[in-house]
Amino acid sequence: MCVVWPPKAADSRGREVISASAACILVMMKIKVLFFGVTHELTGFQQEQAEIPDGVNLDGLWDRYAARFPRLNDLSGALLLAVNQEVSNRARVLEDGDEVAFLPPVSGGTNDDYYLLTRSPIPTADLVRQQKASEDGAVVVFEGVVRNNSRGRRTLYLEYEAYEPMAVRKMKEIGAEVRRQFEIDHLGMIHRLGRLEIGETSVAIIVTSAHRRAAFGACQYAIDRLKEIVPIWKKEYFEDGSVWAEGEARGRVESNAEK
Q1: What is the pLDDT at residue 91?
Q2: How confident is the model at residue 20, as a pLDDT?
Q3: Contacts of 138 (CB under 8 A, 6+ apart)
Q4: Beta strand pairing status for 99-103 and 28-35?
Q5: Is the dihedral of CA 85, 105, 89, 184 positive or negative?
Q6: Mean pLDDT for each 10-residue chunk of the chain (259 residues)?
Q7: 8 A C-beta contact, residue 241 and residue 259
Q8: Domain 109-259's class?
């Protein structure tokens, strides 16, 4: 952002004028950038205090570091970026004081499963690229998407909230159940919180395995169990009110406060 200094003044007719000596001052902000795994080696440091122009998004930050450290470009398709401990879309605009983490592809092994909650758009395609491995013969992805209607009423938007520590723990329990029942390589579960607009992804489950049957079965089992035991609540907003959807087996509660 460019700020004119000194500020604009008014002439005798009340019109705004800019002094001939005025200058455009670039407003800067400071963010903390963290580097893990191979990104730590490629940059030579684990963290850095970066000063960037106001209004820069994650993609702009990535471009700056890729220009400084060209070998980072080898990771471009698989690298994830997180803002304030939440995986984020690269279009996200950064704010002063943010913490950004560069998350390289995982190294392999069963401990690479992940269970996440986020208030940013879910970058499903990036997660799939990171999760796939050369030994995988199948990738199954489930995305729950916000639709524009529910039970004959036009949906405006949704809000999700969660008992977050318990939700993550329950997601990990589901992962353990999946691994006991299906021969899979990796499992990822990520659920969105906060306000979601029509067409946005609310939950994504990604399963990789050597064979499709196990991947399909594991993916369906995981989403069904998530709906049953993970403490996440959904509120649907309509033109004439709102509804708390308390789970597939527990019914719905109307809220008339907005009517």
Answers
A1: 87
A2: 53
A3: 208, 209, 210, 211, 212, 214, 215, 216
A4: parallel
A5: negative
A6: 51 54 71 89 90 91 93 79 84 93 62 83 89 93 96 94 92 96 95 96 97 97 96 94 71 45
A7: yes
A8: alpha beta
Strand, helix or coil at 206? strand
If you count DSSP H runs as helices and E runs as strands, how many of each does the chain have, helices first? 5, 19
Q: 């800019």: which residue's tokens?
A: 18
Equal CATH topology for 30-105 and 109-259: no
Q: Could you tell me the residue ranges of all domains in the chain?
A: 30-105, 109-259
Model pLDDT, residue 79: 78
The two structure tokens encoding residue 82: 């997180």
CB-based contacts of 30: which residues, under 8 Å, 6+ apart? Answer: 49, 50, 51, 96, 97
Sheet-wide strand order for 28-35: 47-53, 28-35, 99-103, 80-83, 86-87
Residue 251 region by backbone torsions, left for phi larger than 0, else alpha for psi between -120 and 50, else beta: left
Q: Which homologous superfamily is 30-105 in?
A: Beta-grasp domain (3.10.20.30)
Give the C-alpha separation, 178 to 163, whole Å: 22
Calpha distance 132→147 (Å, rounded): 29
CB 193 within 8 A of CB 121: no
Q: Summarize pLDDT for 3-44 with one digit per residue, the tens.
A: 444 455 555 555 555 555 555 667 789 999 999 888 888 899
Q: What is the pTM of this model?
A: 0.65
